[in-house]
Amino acid sequence: xxxxxxxxxxxxxxxxxxxxxxxxxxxxxxxxxxxxxxxxxxxxxxxxxxxxxxxxxxxxxxxxxxxxxxxxxxxxxxxxxxxxxxxxxxxxxxxxxxxxxxxxxxxxxxxxxxxxxxxxxxxxxxxxxxxxxxxxxxxxxxxxxxxxxxxxxxxxxxxxx
Length: 161
What we know:
By secondary structure, the chain is an alpha+beta fold. It is built from five helices and four strands; from the N terminus they run H-H-E-H-E-H-E-H-E. The chain has one domain: NADH Oxidase, CATH 3.40.109.10. It is about 35% helix and about 15% strand. Keywords: Flavoprotein, FMN, NAD, NADP, Oxidoreductase.
């Protein structure tokens, strides 16, 4: 797939097959995540692979749509408020790189903010020096939803003098 095709075709998956995900492929896509823009090379991300016991405790109404793999992606706080903000942004780019790399190979993701809830932070063992950028279900799609309409970018561009 070409990058624009990958970007335009990617969807949040809400119905996964039970097929397992090869660990080497998962690591390959996570490694692609590390190529995200990364101010001062802080590499603030950490990835938790969530096992069945922990997953069962998380408060997610759809249990991540039965995805065979569930990850939590964390962003380490920086030395300053600005660095913490930059770390969050680069970690979000890490997640997007991961999502696109997986999608290009036919594997879908569902990105949830459920990890931000204090109860879920405790279940995941996340300390106060980290933010939870997302909990992500990963697996082969059972079905792919149609794209949702987006506003034309022209409506969102402002030209400054």
